[in-house]
């Protein structure tokens, strides 16, 4: 089932179902995709407005770069659900003989590593997106400040939700080199995203106060 192809109602109902997937990781990716879409929308509503002529070139770059990020994040909806389904499947493998136990342990570890990579990729892309969202907040059409602001808040939600999914999966990974590397990347991406969000929140408040 392609989650991104579902209607909004179908997607919400699927999340509310009795299975653990799709869950928070998929929702984090979707929040990021919505942030990217709002960012592109504000860029488009800035282009052609003479008042913002100096920002047109940057807005064109935002559209060109942010649209593929939205597409990639939509793809991660399914990847996140599939990754956790692999974890469930690994735990369901035979576990009687020593050979079976060894194979099961390897499958479980591989599944948890993959379940870590997917939300880490979500976090990485959302952090990259933050720079483009910053452009529309700081240089874009001021009439769209609440749309740009919504993108900012979605980035914060997506980043922290993805980071939490990285953390919970890393807790089950026995490969410490892999775990340490992922934890370091996660902390770096999250710090970057949070720094941009804090700066943009100040800008949003300032524009709305005018």
TrEMBL record:
It comes from Desulfonema ishimotonii. The lineage of its organism: Bacteria, Pseudomonadati, Thermodesulfobacteriota, Desulfobacteria, Desulfobacterales. The keyword Ribosomal protein does not apply. The chain crosses the membrane at residues 27-47. Residues 7-187 form the Cyclodeaminase/cyclohydrolase domain. Pfam families: FTCD_C. GO terms for molecular function: hydrolase activity. This is Methenyltetrahydrofolate cyclohydrolase. Keywords: Hydrolase, Membrane, Transmembrane, Transmembrane helix.
